[in-house]
Amino acid sequence: MNFKMNPLLKTALELGPLFLFFLGFRHFADLIIATQMLVFATFLSLSITYLLEKKLAMMPLVSGGMMVIFGTLTIALHNEYFIKIKPTMVNLLFSALLLGGLAMGKSLLKYMLENALALTDEGWRLLSLRWGVFFAFLALLNEIIWRNFSVAFWVDFKVFGMFGLTIIFTLAQIPLIKKYAVE
After folding, report:
1. What does the pLDDT read at residue 59?
2. Exposure of 117 by Cβ count < 10 A (0-12 exposed, 13-18 middle, 19+ buried)?
């Protein structure tokens, strides 16, 4: 039997760890402590999601798995570098998968979203290309920000900037989706 998770609970489980990271950093002013909170909350979120749905979607699984790896390295080595490069690595991985898939004539985005969207092959190709480039842009932007700004500014960017840019980018794809939608 498939359990359909309440959308508010799903959103809380997806965004909760990031929100706790932000609160932890603001309260303790310590990136290591905030990372400990993030790793614990991410592990808990993925566990609850799996227990309720008996599956994990690919993007949260990869992103969460990398969070646990890079977060654990940050904590164990007491080195902020690892948590700062995690968004770069995740975004580069997604970019490489999408753009690499296109180079091999496959739209990997189609396999991930075909249950939610019905597009022509050209629509999937363009959407995959755009997302691949967007993920590369986010990776580059993360590198610029963590290397040139304060830790507090980077935390704000990671929590609000990347999320905001992703929402704006997603909304900007609506015309493409409408144009190439299959009835």
Report:
1. 82
2. middle
- Helix and strand numbers, DSSP H then E, in the chain: 9, 0
Token couple for 14: 């997806």
End-to-end CA distance of the chain: 29
Q: How far apart, in whole angstroms, are the C-alpha atoms of residue 140 and residue 88?
A: 7
Read off φ and ψ for residue 150, nearest 5 degrees. Answer: -65, 165
Per-residue model confidence (pLDDT) at position 123: 96
pLDDT above 90 for 23: yes
- HEC sequence for 77-136: HCCCHHHHHHHHHHHHHHHHHHHHHHHCCCCHHHHHHCCCCCECHHHHHHHHHHHHHHHH
Which of the 8 DSSP states describes residue 161? I
Say if residue 92 is in the same domain as residue 38.
no
The pair of structure tokens assigned to 132 is 């691949």
Question: Do 160 and 105 belong to one domain?
Answer: yes
The model's confidence at residue 95, banded by pLDDT at 50, 70 and 90, is: very high
- The model's pTM is 0.90
Q: Which domain holds residue 174?
A: 80-183
| 97 and 179 belong to one structural domain | yes
> Which carries the bigger pLDDT value, residue 3 or residue 129?
129
167 and 140 in a single domain? The answer is: yes
